[in-house]
Structure formats: structure tokens, C-alpha cells
Amino acid sequence: MADENDIQVLKTKARIELDKMEAVATAREVASKAIGKDALIWIFMLVLVGVAASAFLDPSALPAVIGLVATATMALIQMVGGIVNEAKKEEKPEITIIKELISRLDKSEVPMSVAVDGERVTVSKGTDMISTARA
After folding, report:
1. Rounded Cα–Cα distance for residues 74 and 53 (Å)
2. Which contiguous run of DSSP H or E holds residue 133?
3. How many angstroms separate the CA atoms of 128 and 76, rounded?
4. Which of 4, 69, 88, 120 registers the highest number of CB atoms within 10 A of its CB?
5. How does pLDDT run across 23-59, given as a tens digit for each residue?
6. d(Cα 115, Cα 123) in Å, to the nearest integer?
7. In what order do the strands lie in the sheet with 128-133?
8. Could you give the angle at the alpha carbon of 20 between the alpha carbons of 106 and 18, nearest 5°?
9. What is the DSSP letter of 132?
10. What pLDDT is stored for residue 132 in this prediction?
11. What is the share, in percent, of the chain residues with pLDDT greater than 70?
């Protein structure tokens, strides 16, 4: 049973390292999450500023304020759209390989052996055997 416990410890350590690798986020990812989390509130507040401006400002100043509010709202909507429509990026190849190796730890396979006798190489796994000789 010690061998199975060693495998479980190794799997746990590998998963911890894998989680550390995946936890490293770029500044863009962090900013995207922050914008996506609060974007609707900011859009609503910008609309409220436009409505309040139309109620309290002089009619000659209104087009400038509404133009600025509309520009800021559209920019925010485009940022949110970019976050939502961003294609899912592929997983890093090293993370994929590590996940595959972790999944293979549980499998008990027949070991492979390689024997070299001069110029003859014999590879065997279980009952399968392949031999080659230099031509």
C-alpha cells in the first residue's frame, strides 16, 4: 500500500503545481474580470448622468455632455463585448502534458523493456515483442 500512497502524494503535488501554473493571470485577464464584473453598474450610472444633465444643465451645454456620456458608454460597451466575445485561448502545451501524465499515474501498465545485443534491438511490452537488426 505504500506504493499507492506514494502515487497519491505525487498526484497531489503535481496538481498543486498545475494549479499554480494556471493561477498566474495576465494583467489583461485581471482587468477583463474587473470590467466585466462592474460594467453594467457603470453603464447605468453613465445613463443616469445623461438624464440628470438634460434635467439640470443649460440647453446649450447639453450636446457636449450627452456626447461625452455617449462616447464613454459606447467605449465601455465595446470593452465588455470584447471580453464576452474573446475566443477561448488554447491551453498551454506543458499544462496539457502535465494533465495527461497525472491521469496516467493511476494506470498500472505492463512495463516496457528494451534490450540491445550488438546491432539487434528488441523492444517488449507484455507479450508483444519487436526486434530490429541493422540492415
Report:
1. 18
2. strand 128-133
3. 63
4. 69
5. 776 666 767 777 777 877 887 888 888 888 888 888 8
6. 6
7. 112-117, 120-125, 128-133
8. 25
9. E
10. 80
11. 83
